Amino acid sequence: MILALVLAGRGRDAREVASFIPDCLVLFKRLLADPRVPLRGKLGVALLVPYLALPFDLVPDFIPVAGQLDDAILVALVLAYVVRLAGRNVVTELWPGSERGLRAILGLASG
Q: What's the Cα-to-Cα distance from 38 to each of 28, 42, 83, rounded to whole Å?
C-alpha cells in the first residue's frame, strides 16, 4: 500500500502522496494529546518525532532507498505499537487524511 502511494504520480494520487507526511505529523500530534493513548504509546511517538527531524539517522538519508527505509521502518514500528495499545479505532478516528492514506497507516501497523 505504501509503495502504491509512493509510486503514484498524477492528479489526486500526487496530492495524496504530498499530503501523507503532513497527515502523519497531524496524527502524531493528535495521538500525543488523546487520553485514550497510553503513556507508553505517547512516549514512543514523542521519541519518534524528534528522531525523524534530526539531520542524522541510523542510515544517512543520502544513501538511496536505505536512507529513507530506516525512517519508514521506525514509523511502522511505532504506529504498530500505538495501534496495539490504543486500538485501530482510535487511530482511525484521529487520522486526518484520505481513506487510502489510512489504509496505508493501518497496513504499516499490521505488517
A: 13, 6, 11
Q: Which amino acid is at 108?
A: L
User: How confident is the model over 10-49, as pLDDT tens digits?
Assistant: 455 556 666 888 898 999 999 999 999 999 999 999 999 8
* pLDDT band (50, 70, 90) for residue 74: confident
Q: Show the DSSP H helices in the chain as ranges.
A: 2-7, 11-33, 39-53, 66-86, 88-94, 99-110
Q: Which cell numbers hold the place of 53?
A: 527531524
Distance between CA 19 and CA 22 in Å, rounded? Answer: 5
Collect all residues with Cβ–Cβ distance below 8 Å to 46 and sequence separation of at least 6.
32
Q: How far apart are CA 77 and CA 81, in angstroms?
A: 6
